[in-house]
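Section 5.1 Outputs to date
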Amino acid sequence: MRVAVIGAGTMGSGIAQVCATSGHVVRLHDASPGKSAEALVAVRSSLERFAAKDRLGGQEPDDVLGRIEVAPSTGSACEAADVVIETVVERLDVKHDVFGAAVEAAPADALLATNTSQLSITQIGSVLGADASRLVGMHFFNPPVMMQLVELVVGLVTSDSTVKAAEAFASGLGKETVVCRKDSPGFLTSRISAIVRLECLRMLEEGVGSASDIDKALRLGLNFPMGPLELGDFNGLDTYLHALESLERSLGERFRPTVTLRNLVAAGRLGRKTGHGIYRYAGDGSRVDDGVDGAGAPSGANR
């Protein structure tokens, strides 16, 4: 199949890698100059790690990378595409622009998918007219190359055939699926994840435990693969704040962001991508301290 991936950030590059590893031809586009080229570097590094662990099914990194091509525009990426996957910033206007261009360029029967983790599928498709029936939420998890779940989200006018096509496509990538049948803010997973992380931030502010101990408790006691505070840093605290603000508008007070989260974002401490968030990070992404205390100041031995 031919897959267009629009957005070459962490999620977009990972989705492109998953699709190419599964044998699909991928055209990758990002509106930021140079972002797609950076994504290819990240994909090569990831593929080489997979190959070193004999986890590429006998394929060579160059073979997989050869199935990913950088496209100069959304329209050129979507030409002749069987599947279009949008993974741009969580802004409705930007997504409207992407799908407007995609519908003009892609074949009339192409599957349209958005990787949004919390925006309404119905609202994203509201500018597409009858083509909104082809749009489905296809929420991958970070990192897409490791996480097995794809959450499918049904918009108000998403057709049954679109959902079935999305299930078949995700299955072909080796993923398991769940279907959120109601286009509700946060869907199944983001809503649960957001409230767990928010409670961890509240415990941090109240001094119930240190950031590292809260994360350790959930990793070892509740079998979380990554502590919720670590996960916030990994995905970007600005992204998390934006999601919470959207959920608060839709679902009320229980999703109100904490003061510490707002302060960290205001200070530009966004997580791993800036080298400092809840925790500090070295250049290689490794954690170098025990995190902030409830006031946003460093805690632990490396104060």
